[in-house]
């Protein structure tokens, strides 16, 4: 038997034993292995890549456009992975590979930018679902293909407000994904998450709470990357070329990136946005337009003080 034949035979047997009991996919039967062998021989790709491509093709045949929804939403809560965070972490690696392949091969009739989970009344996007699972690699693939997903809200249902994908990660204290999504957002959008919101009568999120949040098992700060990502957004580039009116209009536009790509890459200067660090527990600023804010709670700790007193040194 040739060296190539030996290699193929070993891979097939090994993968069968690893994946044979997986109820999430069809069995790895003879037809499956023949398709893998054909891809491996004809397309000049690795054996593992050939397997992944055949597996994603079968998923698409079974679920159609919903295949990404199924693997991101349903697989982590299946019997094989429910309540097993260590296994879900390894599952994300496989899901991210499948997501990359599906998005690379997607056609114009299968555009996931406007895709929503219609079985959920809040209609989250795929990025919302990935953020809630802390699937940072999956989120990266989605954002690379569809940058505007970071600005898409869920639907308002009853008293429940709309949420951005990053908010799903922040609410669940998913550090990796929250930090990544914040890094992909414009600074003013990030600021609004931590400043006083008149409708809510508080900030959407407390930056001080993120600074001090600890893993309940290790008692170690577990939002370090997110804290750094927020601080990075406080270094605010100043682009006088882009009017405030245009910025405000872009918030509700499907073409939000278009406004930003029309300005030069280099700003005239940089400002440090102290408002988030100076705010009280509710995100209220000490001054508004140069005037003292009567609602500001001077007795509460500022986020800057939370930073200096915390052990969250990064």
Automatic annotation (TrEMBL):
Keywords: Receptor. Residues 1-25 are annotated as: Disordered. It comes from the Eukaryota. This is Transient receptor potential cation channel subfamily V member 4. It comes from Paramuricea clavata (Red gorgonian).
């Amino acid at each position: 038997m040739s060296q190539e034949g030996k290699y193929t035979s070993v891979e097939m047997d090994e993968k069968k034993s690893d994946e044979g009991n997986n109820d999430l996919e069809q069995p790895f039967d003879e037809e499956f292995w023949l398709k893998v062998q054909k891809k491996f021989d004809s397309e000049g790709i690795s054996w593992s890549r050939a397997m992944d491509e055949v597996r994603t093709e079968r998923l698409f045949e079974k679920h159609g456009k919903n295949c990404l929804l199924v693997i991101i939403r349903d697989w982590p809560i299946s019997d094989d992975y429910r309540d097993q965070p260590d296994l879900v972490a390894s599952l994300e690696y496989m899901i991210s590979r499948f997501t990359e392949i599906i998005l690379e091969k997607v056609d114009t009739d299968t555009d996931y930018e406007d895709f929503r989970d219609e079985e959920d009344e809040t209609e989250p996007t795929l990025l919302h679902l990935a953020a809630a699972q802390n699937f940072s690699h999956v989120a990266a693939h989605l954002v690379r293909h569809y940058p505007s997903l970071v600005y898409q809200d869920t639907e308002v249902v009853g008293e429940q407000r709309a949420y951005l994908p990053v908010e799903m990660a922040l609410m669940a204290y998913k550090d990796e994904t929250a930090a990544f999504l914040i890094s992909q957002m414009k600074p003013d959008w990030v600021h609004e998450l931590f400043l006083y919101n008149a409708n809510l009568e508080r900030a959407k999120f407390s930056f001080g709470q993120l600074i001090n949040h600890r893993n309940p098992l290790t008692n170690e700060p577990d939002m370090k990357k997110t804290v750094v990502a927020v601080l990075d957004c406080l270094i605010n580039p100043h682009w006088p070329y882009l009017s405030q009116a245009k910025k405000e209009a872009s918030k509700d536009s499907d073409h939000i990136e278009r406004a930003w790509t029309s300005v030069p890459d280099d700003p005239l200067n940089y400002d440090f946005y102290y408002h988030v660090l100076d705010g009280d527990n509710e995100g209220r600023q000490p001054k508004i337009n140069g005037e003292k804010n009567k609602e500001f709670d001077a007795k509460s700790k500022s986020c800057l003080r939370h930073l200096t007193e915390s052990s969250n040194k990064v």
